[in-house]
Amino acid sequence: MGLDLHIHSVYSDGSLTPEEIVDVAMDLGLTAISITDHDNLLAYNCAKTYAKARSEETGKPLLEIISGIEVNTIFERHEIHILGYFIDDTRETIQDLVTYQKQARVQQTTEILKNLKKLAKIDIKLQDINALVKEGGSIGRPHIAKAIVKSGGVSTMLEAYRKYISDDSPTYIKRKTVSPHEAVETIYEAGGIPVIAHPCDLDAVEDLVKELMNYGLRGLEVYHRKHSPAMIEYYSSLAEKYELIATGGSDCHGPKANGQLALGKTHVPEWVLTELKKEKSRLNIALR
After folding, report:
1. pTM check: above 0.90
2. Which domains are assigned to the chain?
3. pLDDT tens digits, one per residue of 127-155
4. Distance in Å from the first CA to the final CA of the chain
């Protein structure tokens, strides 16, 4: 039994397919998962269809698949990630946001590749980057780093980040992206539950919580593999103070170099899913 509500697949910067994620989750005996790829919802239907088929084939309990997304936003030059759960992907507002984010990623990557060729004599084509992600998925810095290593420009991903795609690198171009306010509002309007992701990466979290609540923020990611017990206690108290849902997940991107997989290893209480479903029911009534 257990939940993992923060997982990435090959539709963004993860290395596992939705089907492989479902296999691992079912083998671990998880109750529910959410694949929260960056700026797209493409893994949801793949995972849901496969989970149903595997349950029927094996006789194992059906793994619940919750639609999810992680929207990369920028506010006051800081990157802030907003998770969204139970989103209605037929809503025009969320479709427009995903389209905008995808175009912004392509534009950013194109500009970075131009700089790499001009300033570092590293010639990588956009199709080389697209080949590293599932068709239709979200390209980003991890894919650029992999392509740089593959081209022989550097020997490691870490070196690629440091030399060419860190924020202060002369070849790096910042992405034009939506604000966290827009992301929260759009997710909420699409019948979804907006949540601040891994708050340990942010400064002045409480101020951000208070501001985004005006746009529909309904949760805070309390349980995360990077959160210490003290952090979990603090973020739990913050969620309780502002009547937000405490969510959580492993933020798994695939096996590490040593072969270990974080999926399902972050403890997330079962009641988290109950609270999310209660909020979804309330939203369904409010948005009629």
Report:
1. yes
2. 3-97+176-286 (3.20.20.140), 106-165 (1.10.150.650)
3. 999 999 999 999 999 999 999 999 998 99
4. 34
